[in-house]
């Protein structure tokens, strides 16, 4: 039942650290941020993603982290619970740590071929109102679980679908009660023959100008391989998805399955550290780790 949690649990970060170390009491495996970053093995150039479904043609300003390194960043540096499966992570060449650090988690949802025939008829302002109401309704459950109320402020970037490339992108601005800084949840979906390539980035709203520019590059260099592209769809053999473009934006299958409530229970132990945001084909966790020079990260396992 947690099929779509892989779309969501990738960005639970520690926020601002309150101490000089990020490890469990008694753990002697902590190292400096610099040592942790040096232990990663970022790749450049053309990247064939695991499974051979898609490729990244990275410009010099980006690097790719393998699923193993992405997991290390998410769990050991950013404080997520372990076990999230991804196709890796796109990061700035300047790095993922520090105040302005950010990354794009890559996953794939093989739910079938998503029809784009509604692209010209979706009323995104009305869709936004529905999403905002859903967030407010979900706050009732959030409060019973001990979470602060959350608000979907609006579009940080209104949804846009490129018919020729079959790529869709949008961004949301979110706020949480008691937090002065708003969060930015930026989403890219690349439609393919039998599923959707999912690229999600989370940062703060004060990064919107730079993130918008960088994510336009991510949209351009991410694509399916020949045979797996949208135009390769074969109606005689390939499955159609049970949802369309509007559902990708509004919450997709996860919202239909009621996974928001399940996620609240699943992450109860982290209630002081997280913001849960409706979006994409699932739920996104926001609040980036604000690394400081000299902070320590736990190398863990």
UniProtKB/TrEMBL annotation:
UniProt name for this protein: DUF2167 domain-containing protein
Organism whose genome encodes this protein: Massilia frigida
Keyword Transmembrane helix part of the UniProt annotation: yes
Signal peptide bounds: 1-22
Regions crossing the membrane: 263-289
Stored Pfam families: DUF2167
UniProt entry keywords in alphabetical sequence: Membrane, Signal, Transmembrane, Transmembrane helix
Keyword Signal: yes
């Amino acid at each position: 039942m947690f099929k779509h949690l892989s779309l969501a649990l990738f960005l639970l970060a520690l926020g601002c650290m309150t101490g000089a170390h990020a490890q469990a009491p008694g753990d002697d495996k902590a190292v400096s941020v610099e040592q942790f970053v040096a232990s990663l093995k970022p790749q450049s150039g053309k990247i064939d993603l695991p499974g051979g479904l898609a490729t990244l043609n990275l410009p010099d300003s980006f690097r790719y982290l393998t699923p193993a390194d992405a997991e290390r960043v998410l769990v050991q540096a950013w404080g997520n619970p372990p076990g999230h499966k991804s196709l890796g992570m796109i990061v700035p060449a300047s790095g993922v740590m520090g105040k302005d650090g950010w990354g794009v988690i890559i996953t794939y949802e093989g739910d079938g071929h998503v029809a784009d025939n509604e692209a010209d008829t979706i009323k995104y302002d009305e869709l936004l109102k529905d999403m905002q109401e859903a967030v407010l309704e979900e706050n009732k459950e959030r409060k019973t679980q001990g979470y602060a109320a959350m608000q979907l402020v609006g579009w940080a970037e209104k949804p846009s679908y490129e018919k020729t490339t079959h790529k869709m992108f949008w961004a949301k601005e979110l706020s949480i009660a008691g937090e002065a800084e708003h969060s930015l949840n930026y989403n890219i979906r690349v439609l393919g023959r039998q599923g959707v390539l999912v690229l999600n980035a989370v940062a703060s709203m004060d990064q919107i100008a730079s993130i918008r520019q960088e994510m336009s590059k991510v949209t351009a260099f991410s694509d399916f391989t020949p045979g797996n592209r949208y135009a390769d769809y074969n109606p005689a053999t390939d499955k159609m998805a049970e949802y369309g473009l509007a559902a990708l934006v509004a919450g997709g299958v996860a919202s239909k399955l009621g996974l928001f409530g399940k996620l609240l229970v699943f992450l109860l132990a982290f209630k002081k550290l997280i913001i849960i945001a409706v979006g994409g084909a699932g739920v996104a966790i926001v609040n980036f780790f604000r690394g400081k020079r000299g902070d320590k990260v736990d190398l863990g396992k």
